Amino acid sequence: MHAAALVPLAFLTVSAAAKAQCEPRWAAGFGSFAPPGIVTAVGTFRDELVFATRNATSTHVTVQRWDGRTITAAGTAISNPFIVEAYVDVLLEHDFGQGPRLLAMGQFLTVGGVPARGAAQWDGAAWSAMPGLGVWDDHVLDACVFDDGSGPSVHAVGRLEFQSGQRGIARYVSGAWQEFGNDPALWAICVAEYDDGSGPALYVGGGTTAFASSGVLRWTGSAWVSVGPATGSSTPRDLVVHDDGSGPALYAGGSFTAIGGITAYHVARWDGTTWAPVGAGIGQDVVSLVSVGSGPSARLHAFGQPANAPGTLSAAAATWNGSTWSALDTGGNYTVEHATSWDDGTGPTVCATAYLSETEPDILRWREGVLDPLEEGQGIGGRVTAFEVFDVDGTPRLHVAGRFSAAGDRPARSVARWNGASWEALGSGLSFSTNPNEAEVFALETFDDGQGPKLYAGGEFSSPGFGVARWDGTSWQAVPGLVGNGAYGGDRRVRALCVHDDGSGPALYAGGVFLVPGSTITYNIARWDGTSWTGLANGIPEDSWGVSVNALASWDDGGGQALYAAGRFIQGIPQVPRTQNFARWRGGTWAPACATGDWGPNYDVLALRVLDDGTGERLWLAGGFTTLGGVPAARVGTCDGQEYRAVGAGFANAAFEVRAVELHDAGAVHAPEIYVAGVLGTMASGIPYRGVARWDGSAWVQVDTGVHGPGSGGRALRSFDAGNGPALWLGGTFESAAILMPSKNVARLDATCADPRLFCFGDGSAAPCPCANASAVGAQAGCASSLGIGGTLRASGSPSLSADTIVLAGGSMPNSSVLYFQGAQVTNGGAGVAFGDGLKCTNGPFVRLRTATNVGGASQYPTAGDPTVSTKGLVTEPGTRHYQARYRNAVAFCTSETFNYTNGVTIAWAP
Q: Fewest C-beta in 10 Å: which of 91, 599, 752, 890?
């Protein structure tokens, strides 16, 4: 009998015709340093940081350059077409007499389609092979430049297969690799030059029997000899010369606890005569060592994988100041490997590759021992889960929270604020005592506890307090009193904060997973009056499904102000029917939140907001549910205190959920409308909502092209004008907004019209062109054709469905046939994939617009008598489509195919 009470929301606050004929667009400037793949090596070249990244299938490696502002690819991919995995483990700069060259060495067979076994060189414009190394499956692990008296030459170590047998070391002389050392049993891991006072000598480290048990050998000019007593058991992974003020010495790092007859945990020092430990050592298998500076300010940095060793420091990154070891902040529980020193013009820094997951940062940088993120813009270095506007010296400022250790180019742990141009940290932030970077803030709220407004943070952290802390404008203070929930192994997790006045004065309410101790234990929800916590009756007790209060809201439904709690409590509150996952607290008792309905939300509620979309205030619910009151409502709905209502068709995919709801007034662009964020579903046309969607009063529609990247999704929304006009702020986990616009975990949707956007260029900024036929940087074109230039596609006119004047104009193509077409989605996140002689940037469903013939290298659609682009493309509702042109190319050019593509164009269609 209650099913009829559930009605879909289908109203318009203003008519479609009254809205501006354009779409808002994402703001630039929120990118961050995000290497396009897993980083396997790092070095420097011509004052730039260079690094090698592997693609998802590990078959290709691309060398990238970072100039302090942007990432660009250095030429074409290095690959291993016959062996599944390709590696670049060494990036080394050397001048052979014709200018600096960047040497890339590892395990690969080709570079740009040209045979190059394990070693290649980049002259700043193109890659070429370094011939003569091995016969098939070579793998270079380390290299250095050494002068034996006949001039400096590159020496490489690893597993090297020459026709005469396996070698562990080779040198590059007169344009070819030569065998070196005459020891077929040698398999070296690391190499360095060191002068112990008797002249420069070459040292190598490894773990095979050729090294004896000392692990390090020195080349005398005619033979390899053990360094120090051949006792102990040592496997060095890296060798570096460092001067800590007592003179230069050779330092070895590796997976050893003894070397040359002495105990040394993972790092040891050779002065030319004896081995010595380096302090108490460190509790990690060391993979890389880096020396910075000399004398009293010198520092030795060690990197590897955290381990345990008695009496030592356990850290993935550590620094030695000449007397003690100390840990370096890594921003996460990383394994830290290859490292180098680099001066970006502002002083020396140390950069190292790091790996936690494919969505986490892969290069870390430290300046004077402090983590200093490499940043392209004002992105956030981890997921964003909450926003709050809080006054700073009388000026409202947007605050952001989540799980991160950096905001923009500044360290900021878990909470940061936007000053209108950049992010600022709030003191030392919030952290865990065991691992500072595992802390996460789920909620922010402003509350005046009697001594002025304070910013409260709720989450999962232990410092300065457990679960709840407050910012007084200078420092964070603990808010004690909540304890762990034994049912979850002692979890203490605050997921929601809300200010509510139950008639006795405003108080701060918290929801989550915790206990409030006392004569009667209160579960998972509590009230803070500025002094102490008290329970709400027995709270929301545990059940067999597990309980978490995820969202709170204060609202008067006509019967008086009440506190509403929502989350995951599937069995509801004991003895209170219809309180599954959603309940109301008023007058000291719990009751159903909505008067009608056979059942509450059937699954988790993740967001709860009081919003007025023009038809009156309602409670808006969002989460993973599919029914409200027993009737379908896919992941978003409302309650007016009496009835549940669905909002359109919702988001129909069992794996998706909505995590945030917000009302946003975009000014002249859109009337006030409801926006949602999360891992969303798809439209009836099959086009996905990417992280964020807008309710236009009758249907859910895309917002620009949403957000992109591995695991992308929205978690927080806030409408706020930070001085740039009305804007909608989106937080979550993503790499870009729109197509290939860097926007790391935070994005801003501005009230400016979205012009047609160009993407997928063949200049190396997108996927590599199929056969090194890149177009000029800045041309904003596709991959080069037989003309030596890339084809272009541009759009002009109004993207209005009611007054479409869009013209697609192609140029810089051969005088051949060309197909103009429309795609509903982009390929490879907008980077495209190699196809024919170019990059295919769009994906289906496709619509063919017109086949034309280029004259003077150009053509367009539409021409006189043609249907408009939207009519021919069957675009009947606002949304985004992607356009490209495919043209015929010379038979003998590039691949065996005879076609190429222009760049892509994205158009956001408005009513």
A: 890
